[in-house]
Write a structure and sequence with these properties.
Largest sheet: 22 strands, antiparallel, barrel
Strand content: over 45%
Structural class: mainly beta
Mean pLDDT: 91
Oligomer: single chain
Radius of gyration: 24 Å
């Protein structure tokens, strides 16, 4: 356990500052030869007033309260030839009208950068996410951002990954990459969980040699992986893999796929022999038109049958659909550390969210995801779905979670925007008895641009969780109004 007065808290805050300096240092290095207008810096201040009918996120005896939130932050972006940076920070202080013991600060920092250090050869990716989360589905969850009475932890999720690329004429391209990542947990300012998860760090080396421009539809690649995942609890995982893949065209729309390789695992408290050894797979890639790309392989890996599938379909120039399914072995913290802070469209997203609840164990995860996004005139929309089945390799238990989420926005006028969103998730199989549940949530609102620098919003949100354990049930209604000034 860590509190705000402990030396450990100070050391972890220093990590945030150091990593932020890394991002800022990259920016300074490359900005010396760039025009000032390449940078976009947008600081802001804001205030919001919201009412909740369940301030303590309880199953019964719900208590309402008004909450005033004061916030300030900035967005700093850069699109240059040698540096791409996306970053946002928001700091808030929540003031409860009745229950002042819930008053407190919240911090949210997201940043991702890619810098080209040596043209066409040496690059570095880096990202940081510092957020406050509820990591158990039975925790004191709320649909809106505010302090809560318990089950909260702050997560510092950092990653830096330098890599070197070398083209060998048109025959092949080689990539050597090193990745260092950390996931640290510590107490929230208000409502800290009784026990934080274990911190973890991962060192990973990836070596790849793949076909170059001389190969058109015939493709090949040889990949090597070394991974060392260290966890405070001792559930360490070491892994070595080598894999060869090939694609052989049958005609201009169909190609045969093949994969062969070897895995070697050394994990604590698991049966390493069961998931180690040779693996193989075969399948097809279909490209019936310029808008469709579908591949599927079926084989044997990690001690059983596996399927890897990927589909991308360009519905139109304004809409995209994708779906994928894969099986992998994950150590503690990797479910967070392996999630990118930038989505497919280059927008910042929070990687510190786990639909099935965070665990420290080594797992075999089967993951299916799908989504659609697009823009049509004044309308912007997106939808996603996921199905995740995890096998806990230390004790053989399982959990399964399915979820869907959808968002829609319409520009009613140059100044007024309507938004609507919602979702549903369900624990189909729980690792621990009594923890199955289903949740659904919805939110609608209006955003109004008063001037070029002043905006406001009005929103209503609803959240409900129905659990096998009655004390974990939760329902909340909130209404919120806010103003923001950008400089």
């Amino acid at each position: 356990m860590t509190n705000a007065n402990d030396p450990e808290f100070g050391r972890k805050c220093q990590k945030i500052i150091v990593f932020g300096c890394v991002l800022a240092g990259n920016a300074v290095i490359w900005s010396s030869s760039a025009m000032a207008e390449d940078w976009v810096f947008a600081p802001y201040v804001g205030i919001s007033e919201q009412y909740t009918d369940n301030a303590f996120s309880t199953a019964s005896d719900r208590k309402g309260d008004f909450i005033t939130s004061l916030n300030a932050g900035f967005a700093l972006n850069k699109d240059g030839n040698h540096l791409q940076l996306r970053s946002e920070y928001d700091g808030s202080y929540d003031i409860y009208s009745k229950y002042s013991d819930l008053n407190g600060f919240r911090h949210n920092l997201l940043a991702g950068a890619n810098a080209e250090l040596v043209p066409e050869h040496l690059f570095v990716d880096s990202q940081i996410a510092f957020t406050e989360q509820t990591l158990t589905r039975s925790g004191n969850t709320t649909i809106v951002d505010r302090t809560v009475s318990g089950d909260r932890t702050r997560i510092l999720n950092t990653r830096i990954s330098p890599y070197y690329m070398q083209n060998f004429g048109g025959a092949a391209t080689g990539i050597a990459r090193y990745t260092y990542s950390r996931v640290d947990f510590f107490d929230a300012g208000v409502g800290s969980t009784t026990t934080n998860p274990n911190n973890s760090e991962t060192n990973q080396i990836d070596l790849t040699m793949q076909s170059g421009s001389d190969f058109s539809r015939t493709k090949w690649a040889v990949e090597g992986l070394l991974l060392d995942n260290q966890v405070d609890s001792g559930n360490d995982l070491r892994r070595a893999s080598i894999k060869g893949t090939g694609q052989m065209p049958i005609n201009n729309k169909v190609a045969a796929l093949g994969t062969v390789g070897w895995d070697e695992f050394d994990g604590e408290n698991i049966d390493n022999e069961e998931i180690s050894g040779a693996f193989y797979g075969g399948g097809v890639r279909l490209t019936p038109g310029p808008r469709t790309d579908f591949s599927i392989q079926v084989g044997h890996r990690y001690g059983g049958g596996v399927v890897d599938a990927d589909l991308t379909y360009l519905i139109s120039t304004e809409a995209l659909f994708f779906a994928r399914y894969n099986v992998d072995i994950q150590g503690a913290g990797q479910s967070l550390a392996n999630t990118d802070v930038l989505d497919r469209n280059g927008e910042l997203v929070n990687p510190n969210v786990v639909s099935g609840g965070y665990v420290d164990s080594i797992t075999k995860a089967k993951t299916f995801t799908m989504g659609v996004s697009g823009v049509k005139g004044r309308n912007t929309y997106s939808g996603s779905g996921s199905y995740v089945e995890r096998e806990f390799l230390d004790d053989g238990t399982n959990d399964t979670v399915a979820a869907i989420d959808a968002r829609y926005a319409r520009q009613l006028s140059r100044q007024l925007e309507f938004t609507l969103g919602g979702g549903y998730s369900e624990v189909l199989d729980s690792q621990v008895a009594g923890q199955k549940d289903s949740t659904y949530y919805g939110q609608t609102g209006l955003n109004y641009q008063f001037t070029a620098t002043v905006s406001g919003s009005l929103s209503y949100s609803y959240f409900e969780r129905n659990s096998e354990t009655d004390t974990d049930d939760l329902r909340e209604n909130t209404v919120s109004v806010s103003l923001r000034k950008t400089f």
